[in-house]
Amino acid sequence: VATHLKFFNAWGSWQNNGLVFDLGSYDPFRFWCTFADTFWHDLSPAQHALIRDFMSPRIEAFRGHYASSHWALYNGNNWTPYLAAPALYWAVTFHGHEPDDRTLGVMHEALDVMWLHGPMWTDDGTYREGVKMYSVMALQASLDVLRLVQAALGSEMPQLPWRVIHRMPAYHLGSMAGDGRLVDFGDSHAHRGWSGLVTLAAMLLPE
Question: Does the predicted TM-score (pTM) go above 0.85?
């Protein structure tokens, strides 16, 4: 525990327009919330305070985005799940150990904005912002939200069209050239491969 916490302050952040809670929040919130949940009873009061006090103002920034209908959450594109997922990681972790009105409020807000993301997927499984990197990062974060909802709340997630997303692998394969590079079009870039297992995960979604 102590060895990992030496790296706690190595948080990256885009600090996009001073958002505080931005695209850089996803990875550290996912890691440290999972870490805190796993080792909750092994953490000292000082270590709990370190994690809690560092995350708290960032969660307030997320709530500020929600309350003000800020574009970072409300434009519905890849930003929406990529910010909703880390907020939900925080809410599920702290509601499980220190439940209060704020944890429930963040759960509600994170799941509420996910309704805005559904229209990014067309009926044939195409993602409107292109293959790489936005369909990949959007689905990865959306799958995190789905798994958290299933595990913590015992329910499904109707906010996204999973039956449509199940068709995404055909779109991914159709967007790859013979050299393994993806189509460079619009917001999509000529990356080699998908850099992850999201395409396979989409294939395994129930129809």
Answer: yes
